[in-house]
Amino acid sequence: MAVRLVSNEVSDLCIGKPALRTLPLSAVDVGEALIALRRSGEPQLGVIGDVKKAVSGKISVADIICYLCSDGNLASPAAALERPVAAALPEEAGIVRRVEPHFGLLEAVDLILDGAQNLVVPIRSVAGRRKIQSGCGGGGGAPEFCWLTHEDFVRYFLNSIALFSHIAALSIDSLGLVRPADTLSIRSNEPGLSLLPLLDRALSDQAAVAVVADDGRLVGEISPSALSACDESLTLAAAIATLTANDLMAFIDYYGAPPEYLVRTIKASLKEQGLPEMLELVEDELSSFSTSSSSPSTTSSSSDEESFGGKRPRRTKSRSLSSVRRSEEPEVCHPGSSLVAVMAQALAHRVSYLWVVDEENYDLIGIVNFSDMLRVLREQLLP
Description:
InterPro entries: AMPK_gamma/SDS23_families, CBS_dom. This is CBS domain-containing protein. By secondary structure, the protein is an alpha/beta fold. It has two domains: 2-148, CBS-domain (Roll), CATH 3.10.580.10; 182-323, no CATH class. The chain has 17 helices and 13 strands. The chain has helices at 2-7, 11-14, 30-40, 61-68, 77-81, 105-113, 150-158, 165-168, 195-205, 224-228, 233-242, 245-253, 260-272, 276-294, 303-306, 339-348, 370-379; strands at residues 22-24, 44-48, 55-60, 96-98, 118-126, 129-132, 144-148, 185-187, 209-212, 218-222, 332-333, 353-357, 364-369. Strands 4, 5, 6 and 7 form a four-stranded mixed beta sheet that branches. A three-stranded mixed beta sheet has the order 1-2-3. Helix 6 links the parallel strand 4 (96-98) and strand 5. The longest helix is centred in the C-terminal third of the chain and has 19 residues, at 276-294. The radius of gyration is 22 Å and the shape is flat. It starts with a helix and ends with a helix.
């Protein structure tokens, strides 16, 4: 069994996975990318580069939110949305790596451990079926790609956990898997704009930002997936710019219907900060949401394509958004939790990390993520 595990290829992980949805790098602006993300129901989309028409990156709603909140874009959001999508792409090099279907599975894990967030495997549809292929294009039909994540590899290893029985029951603390979370945590009374560098780090680490009380107790989290579930993207950017972390969690948790006191706070702060254009777009977006909410129809309309403020009913049955949790309910474990238990818990809740808290006081101790779990498992297979 160990020999089989070592000799498997990435194509084995592609079986049954859907084709990656993509955007062309040069033909799409930020606003169009935002609409595409909304309509797809996916947490992120691949970006096709101009060279060789290969997947060169990825973009999420959280990336666009961070972009709108930075570099003076709050003052001119309409202009920011009209810039090429490349302006909002993450700057890290190598976060998306292409591999051929025959690429070794353990070598693929090594790419993950070297910093790759996603691996892209070329595929091709043939006569109603999907076939793993080497190369792009050729022989009939546009090229398609399969998207492999850290979760795919952790799930694969968990299915072979018997091979790791000597460490599976050990605690994450004894295995050295608990990382400090100081670079991923914010006090509940801090301004939302303090969140931006932490969100950038969370996107890079495929984690979230912990919100803690003054005494260090974990009170919630703000995750990229929760941001992606908010269809009011411009209003969310304004909320980050005007609310505290605690109020921002409340805004996200109301799932498209924020209480009037938060709306008033956002609008008043935008006026005080001299951001009339953002204020106007926020009012348009909230008005559009109010109109669509009162409509008896639950189908999407062309207004989504005509206005960035268009609001459709929340996609509760989406495959990717069904796993989004409320910000005040982060998934946690304890230093004494076993490796296998942590793997199973994270996979069951479709997250790539768990917050590690003190069992008695719920104080935040650190974070454990898929990358470090994979590193420990990979080390067991070294010669």
